[in-house]
Write a structure and sequence with these properties.
Elements (H helix, E strand, L loop, with lengths): L6 H9 L5 H7 L2 H17 L25 E8 L5 H19 L5 E8 L19 H11 L8 E6 L3 E2 L3 H5 L3 E4 L4 E3 L9 H12 L7 H8 L5 E6 L6 E4 H9 L3 E9 L6 E3 H6 L10 H8 L17 E10 L1 H18 L3 E11 L1 H13 L5 E6 L3 E2 L4 H4 L3 E5 L4 E2 L12 H14 L3 H8 L5 E6 L5 E5 H6 L6 E8 L6 H6 L5 E3 L2 H6 L14 H10 L2 H19 L6 H19 L5 H19 L6 H16 L10 H32 L18 H8 L11 E4 L6 E6 L2 E7 L9 E8 L2 E6 L2
Parallel strand pairs: 1-2, 2-3, 3-5, 4-6, 11-12, 12-13, 13-15, 14-16, 15-20, 23-25
Antiparallel strand pairs: 6-10, 7-8, 7-9, 17-18, 17-19, 21-22, 21-24, 22-23, 24-25
Helix pairs in contact: 4-5, 7-8, 12-13, 13-15, 21-22, 21-25, 23-24
Length: 763
Amino acid sequence: MHLTVNHTMQNDFARKTALRTSGLLRAFWILPCCALSIFWMTAAAQGQPAAAVQDSTGQPQNAPPPATQRTGYIVKVPLPLFGDRDAEVIQQIRRIAQVSADAEVLRPVVVLQFESSGLPQQAAGDQTQDVRGSQFERCLSLARYLTDREAAALRPVAYLPQSVVGHAVLPVLACQEIFARPGVQLGNASADTAAEPTILAAYRDIVSRGRTNIPWAVVEAMLLPNIELRRISVTDSPGTQVVSLAEANRLQDEGKVSEFHETIWNGAGPSLLSAEQMRSWLWIAPTVQSLADLTSNLGVDGSLRSIQQLPREWRARSIKIDGSLDQQLVNQLLRSIRSSVDQSDINLLVFQMQSASSDLQQAERLASAIADLRDQVYTVGLIENSLSGPISLIPVACNEAILIGPSTMGPDTSPSAQSALSDVQLRALDDLASRIQRPFPLLTVLADRTALVSSYVHQGSGQTSIFSQAQIQNRVDRQAWVPKQRVAGGTTIQPEVAMEYGLINSVEETSQLALSRLGLSELPEPMRSSWIDATINLITAQPWIARLLLMNGMMALMVELGSPGISLGGLVAGLCFLGYFWIEALNGNVEMLEMLLFLGGIFVLAHELFVLPGFGIFGVTGLMMIFLSLVLAAQTFVWPTSSAELNTVSSTLFWIALIGLGGMIGLVFFHQKLEQLPMFRWLSLQPGGTESIEEVQQREVMTHYEHLAGQLGLTTTRLNPSGKAQFGDDLVSVVGCDGMIEAGSQVRVVEVRGNLIIVEEYQ
């Protein structure tokens, strides 16, 4: 509402102001009420979920995909299957079926990725003991659900990135199609428990439901040892069949075998067949190198989605990261993210990665914070521009990392970039890799321009994996690993390699297409900070403010020491020191160590001043503790390990020295007043006050010899120039004024000064 007032009304109002003062005072409460109302209305408007925001077409942001698209989902089946892992997988599949039925989309494809947990960097041909131990009951439960009517609205597909043995074979057989990477093996279903009749019946029941192309004879040979498999041609039957040798002999006796072909399995134990063998007999789909190849073979729209990407009521915010990401910006982002998650209850964060850069320390800080949010908030990293260096750790730390268009990731190849990571940095990267389930070797490539990653093959087991040069050198069994080919290092990481080893999740043409997988039609609204957070960010972003507070605190402390009692100087000094540590704490620099060092230094220094006077071990230790606390409070690390951290230490030492110089200047100006304080007066010699020299001498005299003035006496010793002389009955110490006087000489008292008697030789 806008109010307009003409000049006549304003003049009339001015003339009547004096008469209406009391009325205006009563009306002033309207202004704060209006301000509060506007504030709460704005807050309520900002608190609406992002899912309710509509785009220009009027569609909500969480609209499901059109019914003409076939979507694909991926559900990881952790091996071995035990406990309630089968229930967790079934619950995810049910959720996909429910959402797909509500959205009325085409029959979705559900890819079940059978993979041992904790080995994201493994490639094809992994050791089979890593997936053993699956419980038969759990595997049977999952297999029955996949072949049940409830899952008929889905198209289950098995994807085998590594070998599968044991009873985990059973749910693989329950899928409509089987895709495997080259070199993967499937079989030896009785690796964990012997095949009893009940188990054989369960396997026969699953195979009889017609989901798999693998013949029952092959499945039986996976369960029982000593079953030889032969491929034969049967009379009056097109094609060939794979049967056991016993069955082939029976059919031959009946005259139904027209030709014997090759032996499929020689019966040496339960059968274990490779992906190439099974593909040659068309029992499984073509082998694939990665999830990208699998997606193209399935013909789904876009890349495969996870269960967390199902359309739902998103309360989303976006964060755009562009330019240089320094410590202050990281601190601002962390405060804004924590505030939004705690107050706005958001469940989706989209990070837009533009042409950004950062050092390893700050990128690892933000990536670690994003990793901590994975269970609470679903995070998506959109790599919209090519990234180089540690800044790439930020998007890959998200639940989903997506390359947009021609964007790439790789190391920073500039001469000033990080190289030869320290042990502390490598441990931090390893911990981050385990938390975000990304390949550690490829993370080292992003952070270290000299790191090289290759794929290796184990000579004994045939296992293949990727390692950096530093990793392979630190392995005890490094002699058993043979290098195969270079994977990454020294240049940009190819998108196919990043997809194959799980560094990213997908590659999309546009950000809109990537967001559509989440059911969003447009980018969520940017994350905004409250005015309080904005003010704090403005203060903490200026490094000179903390330095100015520290210098003013030192000067104010000197002023306080120059004025008896607690005055304004002490209050200002306390507030300045409090503000300094508060700013550094918000910047993530101050922890318990810095506070303990500062307070302990003050205590030790006070002990030196008041308990044990002097400047000994306590004084030196207290000053060193205070100095160390100020240095550590200005940086995020304890000991420098890179050139950038060394530059930070140099800058910190310069400012601390400058501030110390300011304190010394203040001490020079106020040292005279410092001596007058009651608590410090005993540290220096005080003047005698208003007493004259004569009064002091008179007060300090213990024996009076004024009566000897002018008297004559004899020296009892030689005066050189002092000695003894006899004056009547008094034998006193005297001092000669005319040089040396021999003993027995007659002398006369010239002057008496307290206890001092001055004589001369008398002629």
